[in-house]
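Budget justification note: compute hours in this period were largely spent on complex prediction jobs such as the one shown. Inputs:
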Amino acid sequence: MTGPHTDVTVTVRRRPDISDPQGATVSRALRDLGYEVEDVRIDKIITLRVSGTPNDLNEQVAAMCEQLLANPVMEDYEIRIDE
Amino acid sequence: MTTAVVVFPGTNCEHDVVYALDSLGGDAQLVWHRDTDLSDFDSVVLPGGFAHGDYLRTGAIARFSPIMAEVRLFAEAGKPVLGICNGFQILCEAGLLPGVLLQNRDLAFICRPVSVRIESTDSVLTRAANVGDVLTIPLNSYEGNYTLDDSTYARLESDHHILMRYADSDGEVTPESNPNGSVTNIAAVANDLGNVAGIMPHPERATEELLGSSDGRVLLESFLLSAAGMANV
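Corresponding output:
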């Protein structure tokens, strides 16, 4: 990419009311190993390099999340834009 | 009557669906996911497989394949649309069916015949069956754990759009007969109009005794019947 670009990190998390079978299994495994773990959730971190400057990106990345990166039926997302 | 069987990169059950529909008197043809015309068809099936590698989430990429805009119009026109397994996941991602399919409760890929009880005949998939019928159909999935929010669940239940539940061989819906953790054992649902249906097990793999069961026939026959007499659905 030749023009200005910005690094963006999107964290996609299952909503708290949606079960996470992977997290539950890891949680059990950790308890079996003797750790006092109450809950584990496994989230997704998506890193993007996007054309443009940080100040005009938030809306665009939110649209990406709504359209593709997250499924609003089961997931929330959090956007971090590197300044 | 001609059924479009949509093929995405990674779809792998399309020939089984064509074979099964043709053997039941239908006329099924494969349609590539980049096609954009369904005008020659009176029904659409999204078959099983791993469309676009199931990357990101099952169905997440497939819902943006060019054919899906046509499938949406088709569904909105009240015409019969059926998603089997991965096709069910795609219809959920596309918002044409409610809910979502998560990884199986025990994180195991399940590949075995299961019993399902018919809960409603108010859909293109179940109209020729009877409530209480118990069918044995192969399940073949890793993400078959159907989940939805409470208010949508209540609406589906009251509108009779929960079509099938996993049950034991006597038709009892029990926690033990739930293979994958689906909410209240749900195996198949329909949309508000009943013309779009999604089912996790594979009826096309249960259409001849030679295959171990012919219980899937009544479902595919329902679908062909719906395609033939669309106005009555």
